[in-house]
Write a structure and sequence with these properties.
alpha/beta, single chain, 46% helix, five-stranded mixed sheet, 5 strands
Amino acid sequence: MIADRSEIAKQKHPRMDLLVSFDDGRLANIEMQVVYDPEGFYYRMFYYEIRLASRQVVKEKEPYSNFHPVYQIVITDFIISSEYEELVEQFEHRNKKGQSLKAAGKLMQLIFIQLPKVPLMDVKDMSLLEKWSFFLKYFEDEGKQSIIEDVIKQEEGIAMADKIIKYMSQEWIDQLNEEFEQLSLNDSIRMENARIKWAKEEGREEGQKDLIKLLSQTMTVEEISKATQKPIEEIQNILK
């Protein structure tokens, strides 16, 4: 997997690579990470998990048990920590004794798939998850193409993914990225709109300044300007 560090560094607002909604109401966000940011990585993944859970709205008089489990699945091209040794590391709400929080313990799960941990073995001995992990890790590795070909022959889904990757044009990829960035921006604006409206109606200048500082943690100056309808120069002065 290849990524431009300079472009990744510019991504301020939350970005979900693939949002999956299951028939039973469960939600999953599948995120792919190729660059490890030790200062913000875990905070960002927890934020994504909370953000995913907040997409569900429990209506008035509706039982809280209608809240469905959510899964933040992070595929990394690096080892997240030396203490986590497995290909798949799964975290959920537990107490200090390691006991799950009854039925609610599994409602929010953070799952890491560490591609460098994928084992080198005969394809016939690989699980489906190991085959996908091997494909994602080594599909560009010239020395692993014979194994990749065996994986593709055995799994129809991976064969389809291989065809899509080979025939995607860079122009199409750039267009998808632009559309995704716009969707993420619109989502951020919607989520902050209520607080912006409150700050404006109350006429609280300090409140507006605090809000702009809060937005700056996940949005660029240009995006804040668009969301708050304030000049870029004014926002820059507030953030100084």
